[in-house]
Write a structure and sequence with these properties.
Elements lengths: L2 H31 L6 H30 L6 H34 L1 H4 L3 H19 L2 H5 E5 L7 E5 L6 H42 L19 H49 L11 H6 L5 H13 L8
Antiparallel strand pairs: 1-2
Length: 319
């Protein structure tokens, strides 16, 4: 192998591991401090932080150790477990982001539905996400094993055996669809509907606030108005505050989605290229751009804690 390239890969993976681990541990600590007043949005952030920490510890860390040792050093069960956990963390991180976006869609487009047993609904969505991620990761256990890199060489590594010449192409295409293409499609639809609802809501507020539209407060019996203009203004202000809080959480989720797409698109593009083009580089390639691109997907797990930090001042209420 190219030792200089290996050193660069170790440096990149080490940096990603340190930043992602520290950032997501910080998120989990912040969520722990808010445990007594945790909202639905906090709950989704907590589990997205857990899944991102899983990416750091179960995907990046094993890959880093693997780059250091060159060959996988461990028994066959450990090989299968590592490969299972690597894909599990990818599925969990992606689908947790997906259900968080679906929750924002319900909060904005179907607010009454989102208010019916909100905690139970959130826990159900999160539980199903973890369960689905565990099930979809199971093929890794059967595909990967400790095997000889070349028959008769005596050198073992944790490699895949797809059984058929088209197996790698089918599996990589399937994982790309499940982890990237389909989720991005659902996310795009959700945000289109959210943006449409927000624009419609803002337009309605503009029209209702125009001169001549009325808006007089409902009087108390006998014509008295205990709340007065101040009470009416307070109620209007409260509604606007809640609406703005929801919009801010939508903005935060959108930025997380944008970071996810930006970080994962090159990885899956290179993965698809490697199985659909016979002349493409492979895992043993010394092509620097190809090798580094394969490592940068986990950057989204580094970005998310900083995105939370940027929006954190607006996430304490009305989520």
């Amino acid at each position: 192998r190219d030792e200089e390239l290996a050193k660069a890969e170790v440096g990149v993976l080490g940096t990603i591991l340190a930043v992602a681990t520290a950032g997501n541990l910080g998120v989990l600590l912040a969520m722990y401090r808010l445990r007594r007043k945790m909202s639905r949005m906090h709950l989704f952030i907590l589990h997205l932080g857990l899944s991102d920490l899983g990416v750091a510890l179960f995907q990046v860390l094993p890959q880093l150790l693997w780059k250091v040792t060159y060959r996988f050093l461990g028994p066959d069960p450990l090989c299968r477990a590592v490969k299972y956990l690597q894909v599990l963390s990818m599925f969990a991180s992606t689908y947790m982001l997906l259900v968080m976006t679906l929750d924002r869609y319900l909060a904005v487009c179907h607010p009454l539905q989102s208010l019916q047993q909100p905690s139970r609904q959130a826990y159900t969505m999160i539980g199903l996400t973890w369960l689905l991620s565990c099930l979809l990761s199971l093929p890794q256990v059967f595909i990967f094993s400790l095997r000889e890199v070349r028959p008769g060489s005596g050198v073992l590594d944790c490699w895949a055996d797809f059984g058929y010449p088209w197996g790698a192409r089918a599996y990589i295409t399937w994982t790309t669809l499940c982890i990237f293409v389909l989720p991005v499609g659902v996310l795009s639809v959700c945000y289109s509907l959210i943006c449409h609802e927000i624009c419609k809501n803002l337009k309605g507020k503009t029209q209702s606030g125009a001169p001549g539209t009325g808006g007089a407060a409902v009087g108390a019996p006998g014509g008295a108005n205990p709340a007065g203009k101040g009470g009416q203004a307070s109620r209007v202000s409260s509604v606007r505050t809640i609406s703005r809080a929801k919009i801010r959480t939508v903005k935060m989720t959108f930025v997380i989605v944008a970071a996810y797409v930006t970080c994962w698109a090159p990885f899956f593009s290179v993965q698809m290229w490697s199985v659909w083009d016979r002349d493409a580089p492979d895992d043993e390639s010394t092509n620097v751009a190809f090798s580094i691109t394969m490592l940068l997907a986990s950057l989204s797990s580094c970005c998310n804690p900083w995105i939370y930090l940027f929006f954190s001042g607006h996430l304490l209420q009305g989520c």
